[in-house]
Amino acid sequence: MKNIIRTDQAPAAIGPYNQAVRTNGLIYTAGQIPLDPATGKLVEKSFSDRVYQVMHNLEAILEAAGSDFTKVIKTNIYVTDLGQFAELNRIYGEFFPGDDAPARATVQVAGLPLGTDVEIDMVAYK
Question: Residue 89: CB partners within 8 Å, gap ≥ 6?
Fold first, then answer.
């Protein structure tokens, strides 16, 4: 059985998918891009601002699902420029300090939804 997770504290889906699905004790988030949940528009400031927005969106979704960053077991990160890798790691590390960070993949891609440069999805437990 699956449970659909929705919150107005994160952006609404821009396609035929849900913000997250919980099944068998695991929470699978949809990929989050730097959309401001209040306006539905992309954050246009710096790469750093966009990564923070993505992480805050994911935080809200996990909270709505009864979880948090301490329960994340896997992340997938997609960027259009691996030249931003150091800055991405700096910000990501603020949310996952210490030695218990989740497993992770980071991949450079040719493009992302709405022309943004970063997208992150997560798997967590409740």
Answer: none
Residue type, 109: V
91 Cβ neighbours under 8 A, 6+ residues apart: 48, 51, 52, 55
pLDDT digits (tens, 9 = 90+) for 29-78: 999 999 999 999 999 899 999 999 999 999 999 999 999 999 999 999 99
- Under the banding of pLDDT at 50, 70 and 90, the label for residue 80 is very high
Q: Return the beta strands (E) in the chain as ranges.
A: 2-5, 20-23, 26-29, 72-79, 103-108, 118-125
31 near 121, Cβ under 8 Å? yes
